[in-house]
Specification:
With about 280 residues, this protein is mainly α. The protein has helices spanning about 15-35, 45-60, 85-105, 110-120, 125-130, 130-150, 155-170, 180-200, 200-205, 210-215, 220-240, 250-270, and strands at about 65, 75-80.
């Protein structure tokens, strides 16, 4: 369901690319330190957006470094570290754990069962550090699974539930920015869920899997689906612009105003070609 909230690399300066990669490598490094080497395989670039947003808002002190690693053994990679890098690493592991558990329960996928064991080793520790966020992940994924099992024909219900999940992830702490971050996350989560449903429409039709647009019974309707996405991301950016962001603002702008649409169009083409 992730893979949409990433940068449009073609429009980034070299400095911005290095910053973006450094944040991503920092999260990857912390997953290794806080979980395991193999857990790094579940890392998504979407988590770099989460870290960058909170870093820009709260501007924590940063530690930087570089080293080669198992995934990049030849050339060393620069990394960034701070409390929000570590937070993004923990949320990535928690999301990967519940996604694997959901896949195991729904499809009895043995690959998902193995993944759940990998990510589950560190989940209890993460849940102790971030009980509110982990409860939201568990509750929302469970609710979405129930709606999908009922073949829910109202896309707003599962999309809104995923939005609630994202809102709790963006709201790092209960402070003056929590409401704006939750509202932003709600809209962003809706975009992610509805975009994923749109690009997976043909594949889900072939495989007989749940998709809210299939359940609606209205057929393939890209103009209508894209209107939903425009509305969702518009609400997201409206809340985003309320935040007093300076650091990495241009990079965040790139992701929300360009990257999400570039990823959507690419996945849309892949879905239509049968490669999604």
């Amino acid at each position: 369901m992730f893979g949409f909230v990433t940068a449009n690399l073609k429009e980034l300066t070299q400095e911005q690319k290095q910053r973006y990669q450094g944040v991503y490598c920092g999260i990857c490094r912390q997953i290794r330190l806080r979980a395991s080497q193999i857990a790094r395989l579940g890392l998504s670039y979407d988590m770099a957006f989460l870290a960058l947003l909170l870093m820009s808002l709260y501007e924590p002190e940063e530690t930087v470094g570089d080293r080669a690693c198992v995934l990049h053994p030849v050339k060393s990679k620069a990394w960034v570290d701070n409390e929000f890098i570590r937070y993004a690493a923990d949320m990535n592991v928690a999301l990967a754990y519940y996604k694997a558990m959901d896949d195991w329960q729904d499809d009895r996928s043995y690959a998902a069962r193995i993944q759940a064991k990998v990510f589950g080793k560190n989940y209890e520790e993460i849940a102790q550090r971030y009980p509110r966020q982990c409860k939201a992940i568990a509750d929302c994924i469970g609710q979405i699974s129930q709606l999908e099992g009922e073949n829910c024909a109202n896309p707003d219900l599962p999309a809104g539930t995923f939005g609630k999940l994202m809102g709790e992830l963006l709201a790092y702490q209960e402070d003056m920015w929590a409401h704006t971050l939750r509202s932003m996350g709600m809209a962003l989560g809706r975009f992610i869920y509805l975009a994923d449903a749109a690009v997976d429409y043909r594949r889900d039709c072939k495989k007989g899997k749940y998709n809210p647009y299939i359940a609606m019974g209205t057929g393939e309707d890209w103009p209508r689906w894209e209107e939903y996405l425009i509305l969702s991301i518009g609400r997201c950016t409206q809340e985003f612009e309320k935040l007093p962001l300076v650091q990495d603002k241009q990079l965040l702008d790139n992701i929300l105003y360009s990257g999400v649409w570039g990823n959507f169009r690419r996945k849309k083409t892949e879905g239509r070609d049968g490669n999604g």
